Amino acid sequence: MHNDNGSDSPQVAEASSTLSAKMRRGDLFAEKCPSRDVLKHVTSRWGVLILVALLGGTHRFSDLRRKTVGVSERMLAQTLKWLEGDGFVARKAYPVVPPHVEYSLTPLGREVGLKVQALADWIEGNLPQIMAAQPAPEK
Amino acid sequence: MHNDNGSDSPQVAEASSTLSAKMRRGDLFAEKCPSRDVLKHVTSRWGVLILVALLGGTHRFSDLRRKTVGVSERMLAQTLKWLEGDGFVARKAYPVVPPHVEYSLTPLGREVGLKVQALADWIEGNLPQIMAAQPAPEK
DNA sequence: GTAAGTACGCACATAAAGGTAAGTACCCAT
DNA sequence: ATGGGTACTTACCTTTATGTGCGTACTTAC
Hints:
The structure is a homodimer. Chain A is mostly helical.
C-alpha cells in the first residue's frame, strides 16, 4: 500500500525531544501511528466487551469466556494479550496446579474502558433514533 | 454460528412498550443487536477518519478522498453509505453534469463523531504512557 | 480531440479477523 | 480410571474487510 510518506514526517512526535509539554500526536490521518493499532484493539469485536466486563471487576479467564457469550478461547486470549500489551489489562497468574489467572483493568485501562463504554452507551441509547432514520438497515 | 438465543430474549428492548423511561438496551453482550453494526461502521478503519473529517465541515467526495489519505474510492463510498444508512451522514447530490455531491454530518452524526473523536483523542494523548507500559509493541 | 476530473458501481484478489478442533499438564469429583 | 474443568497454544479453514483496476457519462481545460 504505497504510503508515500515521502519525507520522514513524524508520526507520533519525537518521543525524546520536545516531548513533555506539546507532544504532537500525529494520529488519525497518519497511517503508521501506533495509536491506530491501539484503537483497533480497543474497538475490536471482543475488545469492547472485555473492557466493559472488566469495568465490573476482576475476572478469571473462564469467567470472561462465559460472560462474553460467543467468544472463542482463541480470540479471548488474543484480545486479552493485545489489551495487556497496551497496558490496559493486568494479568495475574497464580502458580497453582489447575491454572488460575486473574484479569483486571489498570488505571489506564479503566480510562479507555470508560471512553469506549461511553461511545457504546451513546449508540445504545440512540439506537431508536438511528433505526428511525433509515427503514432499510444496510448490512 | 449457533447462537442459541433459545427463548426470544429481547435484543434491543421492545420499542413500543416500556420505551421512554427504561428503554432496555440489549446491546454489548447481545450479538444480534443492530447497535453492534453501528459500532462497527463508526469505528471502522475509515469511519473514524471520515467522521472526524466531516466534523470540520461539509466535504465533497473527492475532497474526502484527498483528505483521508490512503482510502480507496470503493471504501470511501462504502463507508459513507454505512454512515448515511445509520443517519450520521447527509448526502446531497446536485444534478449537475460533472457529478457534484456533498457530504455532511447530521446532528446525530455530530454527536457520535464527537464521541469517537473523544476516544481517539484520549488514545493519542495517552500514547506515550501506553507505549511506555510495554517495550514490545505487540502487532 | 485528447486528457483529466467527477462520483461512483462492479468484479476480482488479497489480507486480516475470527472460528473450529485438538492438544497440553495436571487436578478433583464420581 | 474416566470425565470435566483450567488456561492456554497451535494448526487449519472460513468469513469479512479492504485494495486494485476498469467502466461510465459527460464536461472543461489544453
